[in-house]
Design a protein that fits this description.
Strand content: 5-15%
Number of helices: 9
Number of strands: 5
Structural class: alpha/beta
Radius of gyration: 19 Å
Oligomer: single chain
Shape: elongated
């Protein structure tokens, strides 16, 4: 994935790309609805700073929210990475799920972030991120993707994969995605080959299960 592949508000994407290309911003806060590409953009930020492999640490705060987990992260910031520039990047998905104690343990490192470390905080609920952390991040909103942008993405994916769907099925896919590229592409994988009616029934079933989940 490249910056040019990112779907969404072009000015937001360009602003993030510019900040990632520089060295002034050490911590980013990406916020917006689920499935709009926050983690994908976080990985592009890491790539812009020459970080990949073991030096790219993706941390799921939804399942690891305790102070002990965060201290393992802060320990990693004390040494340089293994890549050519020695950089590391830590992506914290669903960061609003961190406990108060975990945020406290992380704050000092964010305040005095080593030059070789980049933090990227991703969240659907920026209001739950402590102000002490927010003020030390460059904050970028990633809004819901528009219908026209989703339609264009769907067309690109279908053309690239050789997937044949009717305009009616395409419209249903976009409608049921509710502005989320991730949801739309997940729904696309469930569509069987065959007639339009069976594909639409499958989509309805998928949407119902997604709502219940």
């Amino acid at each position: 994935t490249a910056w040019s592949d990112v779907v969404g508000d072009v000015y937001s994407v360009l602003s993030i790309e510019k900040a990632a290309a520089g060295s002034d911003v050490r911590s980013f806060l990406l916020h917006g609805p689920s499935g709009v590409g926050k983690t994908t953009v976080a990985r592009l930020i890491a790539a812009s700073r020459g970080v990949d492999g073991p030096d790219l640490i993706e941390f799921d705060a939804a399942s690891r929210s305790g102070v002990g987990d965060v201290r393992q992260l802060t320990d990693l910031t004390r040494t340089r990475g293994l890549n050519g520039k020695g950089n590391r990047c830590i992506i914290l998905d669903e960061c609003h799920r961190l406990s108060a104690q975990a945020w406290d343990a992380l704050l000092k490192t964010v305040e005095d972030c080593p030059e070789w470390v980049t933090f990227v905080f991703c969240t659907t609920e920026p209001g739950k991120v402590p102000k002490t952390v927010k003020t030390r991040c460059a904050s970028f909103e990633m809004p819901t993707i528009t219908r026209s942008e989703l339609t264009k993405l769907l067309r690109t994916v279908c053309d690239g994969e050789g997937i044949q769907i009717t305009a009616k099925v395409a419209g249903a896919l976009v409608d049921k995605a509710f502005g989320s590229p991730r949801a739309m592409l997940a729904a696309l994988t469930t569509i069987p080959g065959g007639d339009e009616d069976s594909q639409l029934r499958t989509l309805d079933s998928w949407a119902q299960k997604s709502t219940e989940a």
